[in-house]
Amino acid sequence: MELTQPLSSLLVANGVVVLASLVQTSTGMGFGMIAAPLLALISLEFVPGPMLFVNVFLSLLMLSDGRNHVVRKEVTLLLPTIFVGTLIGAAVIMLLPVDILGIVFALMILVAVAITVFAKALPMTSGNLVICGVAVGVMGTATGIPGGPLVVLYQNEPIEKTRPTMALVFTFSYIASLIALSIAGVFSVYLALLGLLMLPGLIVGYVIGKRLRGYMSREIGRFLMLSIATGGAVLLLLKSV
Fold it and tell me: What are the residue boundaries of the structural domains of the chain, listed by start?
């Protein structure tokens, strides 16, 4: 199987994944918003499939760190609704013409940023969990960024609970999205290989991120995440028009 991505692109992609996994590991959020626009700028081949694939490993690592703090009641409501949203997201990807994919991808990233910035924290109710679950499935499958709705829901929750609970939700979301994208014909063995080739960057970012826990606050992580996501999405939009 011959790679179409040059070595330089793979090295830059690994650098992006280092930064994204560092922020995600230390603050519990940020991988998708940082990685998606920057990887898309390198090549649209890297998103959403390969990015979702490599992020499964990060979510499993983070889940293993704090699995005893997972709030099972919340997860029980989120997972089935994420599956519903995943089917909708896969349908969106299938119906999009290839020539406007970059534009739509950039706009959806900006929507995720807007949700994170402007939406007020939601109370942890069953109804809000269901709504957020569907939104996570749609956005995670279509863009690789499932975290926006969860940030709105969990932004005032203790980080000791948030990090492992979101890790479990993300793991399920990523796997469900990959299955849906495979069925839709837009995720292949080749794209899985691209994801694996970004694994070194993910491991480096995870190790550094663990050391930065307690030093990098949520506010710093949020600022980095939103700044990079906005800048990357705008650049991708300009590149795609």
Answer: 7-240
